[in-house]
Amino acid sequence: MASEHVDVPVKLKNHIVSLLRQSPLLQAFSSEQFSLLLEQARIHRLQEGEMLFRQGVPLQEIFICLSGCIKLFHMTAEGHEKIISIASPGQNFAEAVMFAEGNVCHMNAAALKQAEVIGFNAGQFRGFLETSPSSCFSVMGLLSQHIQWLLDEVDRLTLHNATFRLVYFLLETHKHPNYCNIISLDVPKHVIASRLSVRPETLSRILKNLTDQGLITLRDHKIELIDVAGLKAMLSTEG
Amino acid sequence: MASEHVDVPVKLKNHIVSLLRQSPLLQAFSSEQFSLLLEQARIHRLQEGEMLFRQGVPLQEIFICLSGCIKLFHMTAEGHEKIISIASPGQNFAEAVMFAEGNVCHMNAAALKQAEVIGFNAGQFRGFLETSPSSCFSVMGLLSQHIQWLLDEVDRLTLHNATFRLVYFLLETHKHPNYCNIISLDVPKHVIASRLSVRPETLSRILKNLTDQGLITLRDHKIELIDVAGLKAMLSTEG
DNA sequence: ATCTTATTTTGATTAAAATCAAAAACTGTA
DNA sequence: TACAGTTTTTGATTTTAATCAAAATAAGAT
Fold it and tell me: A73, A139, B158, B177: which has the fewest Cβ within 10 Å?
């Protein structure tokens, strides 16, 4: 799995190296361990739609997205897809698999657009953890955060409706970047829909409602948040 | 929080001690560390409905249920409750909180029936982890399992319907115990409903359907699985 | 450009489950 | 046993979002 599109050894640009050095996954390691991990790491270059790994398959790597974005998703027998999360540059994924029975991952990962992913050797990674409880604590913190996120997600799915989930998603996405109130959707809307567990038609209608209420405006593939306070109010009152 | 109903120091029956010794949470520790954890542990005796801790409050303990059962649940501003999971004797909970920002737990815990819970000192626990990477690995394995369970739960909530969730729940509950096909619900049905994210009325109707189909029978607060193969078939075909 | 394809929106309809309301079945207690 | 309370079931109705179907829009290729 995931071996066809690999370049090794890794030659990384400096800004990528410093991105990685700051990753919560790696920052607790010594410089030496960090270098050794990089030496053994592989770059996966994926075309849009290309799979990185499939559910049920054991993984020998822990991943960090370097460019593009990766969807992590479940698939039912009938072919229905549910996107659990979307990893963007700097974000790690499949780190919990390293401690799972048989290292089997229960999810699929595929590129939503042309992407580069770095895969660290899981055995080597575990080896370094064995020598360093402080690194273990760093990883345990990461796993704890992951659990917290999933608990909140269950919360949103069970106690809140589709509109709430979309508004929450918009405000979350809005948190990170460059102050301006414009969110660029760099993936098709049906991807956002799957991420939010609604049908594309429903997402379209909800966006229309919010537009009609004067809370957002839509143009191209960008959503401008007109009334952030109003959106925030929707999260506390309704849902 | 959680200090009113505490007996300390702990005096435990032998079978409880051996239950604890086998807990995935504790088994990686040395006998000495295990004893020291027990020395600092507190027993919480809870009446039915009594809270163990509330969301938003920092926790200084990691818990294992000794008797009775504990519901772990979210609560919305409007007072709607969603039970995430139910801990029965031997099961640990709130172990991830120990690595969270400010040790803040985002869930509530309360007794579903008269219960005893042992709370280990989280600081001491972390201290022992610092001395032992192998214990860390044990905990990371536990956290990884927790993540896996939550991912599956998201899966069931988004890709499957209420009937699927109930049938899955019945078969999961059936896995553990003493071969016989009778599941005793030792909690009110509305608790099961909340756990499955359906309304009590809906649960009642689904149980009726399954009964009409000859898959189960209901009497008292027991569900007898008549056609286990038929139930399993429902998980693969429909959902 | 034009044609082709994929994505998104809109409208009409359906389905699953929630809600509302009330009856029935239990529980425990006096 | 009768009574007061809770829990569960049943029935009628509504709501939310899914589904089905088709039009509109956007994106790519020739």
Answer: B177
